């Protein structure tokens, strides 16, 4: 009997915990992919810098219900089912129903079949990278004599899905792809007045590829043209003096070689998920919430969703830009956070709760609308500054929103992009902007093009300059038989040396 009881309690506790944590993770972060799960469970500094609210939320939605359900099951079993033999039979039926119910719930939130399929792919080596990765060679990346400045805003979870449904970039009548009306009107105005790459003739953007579904993965993909689907076990990711993809040549390395002063503003503690180590290893200085705490430059109400609220981060960006030397080209990168799932954060000193404040959906709409307003105001401010005439501003959603339940099932979801005041090296042609299939990886060479940089051959990393004559890999594979995600999800052999252990990429002839 004791062995039976131990087995039942252990099995129930295990299934219960998996089901409850799965529900919490899905509510907070959307559908979890294998690479995302594997990356975060391997990184020792995963929880560095997390706000107390995260632990409070985990306790309320995971630990408390877990203990409550376990206690209820113990009391039912101890004081009801075990009172007589007939009830013990009922207890076995009840136990099976419990296990089956929580198992179904766990599958609903974890999608174990997908995780298993993804794990099998990453255990198989392929030659996709060897065939398609374009090494960043100095002879193929030609900067202009007068270098342009760069500002990149990585807007948390920002999608073209939020843009006004009346906006038509190509002035054509097309199916309404926006279910949220005027939720992001400022970004809509920016899109209509500047260059926005789209997968349609109207509102659209980048597709989210496998391995780039969370912030650090998005940053790596945008800056290096590669996904975080590498052999994780052999990479220190900045731990104990190790490097974070130290062998990869990324945008920061390229701009550093050209004399750019580079700063990245991170609203949360920089070590979370390895953001700080990654940027440092690629020649970008980092200023995070702890930087401004040490300088005593934060007001008492500085906190937003996590770390600094976006209004403060953008104010810090203005100060950085004001203090820059005029004779040195600069690159300033800004990460926002207040539109993170599941409800975001609305800065009531800057915005109103015009969508209501009762439900999670209303709160998330307010957060998106507020972030849209703050980014729009920052862009308008930048236009009045002396540096603007020689500065390209790029706005990029870091990934699709993880707030899966927020969207209708038929929503055409794409990642937002906008290139403001860009001076493209290649001519702007409608067929290069509209009806394109592209991903994070194609943004790296396109950003360089927007700085009047010639990318000879039109390709860098796994990306294609969207204004070049080169098709993207999405267009190449899905247009000619498919298999794109399946092929590049396989582990590349050369990443073990080129990206992780050494800087062998730089040993290529004339590489950066």
From TrEMBL:
SUPFAM superfamilies: Alkaline phosphatase-like (SSF53649)
One Pfam family hit: Sulfatase
InterPro entries (UniProt xref): Alkaline_phosphatase_core_sf, OpgB/LTA_synthase_biosynth, Sulfatase_N
Domain Sulfatase N-terminal positions: 242-452
CDD domains linked: LTA_synthase
Keyword check for Nucleotide-binding: no
Record flagged with keyword Transmembrane helix: yes
Sequence intervals crossing the membrane: 7-25, 58-76, 88-110
Membrane topology field: Multi-pass membrane protein
Source superkingdom: Bacteria
Location(s), subcellular: Cell membrane
GO cellular component: plasma membrane
Keyword field: Cell membrane, Membrane, Transmembrane, Transmembrane helix
Protein name (Swiss-Prot/TrEMBL): Sulfatase N-terminal domain-containing protein
Source organism per UniProt: Helicobacter brantae
Lineage, top ranks: Bacteria, Pseudomonadati, Campylobacterota, Epsilonproteobacteria, Campylobacterales
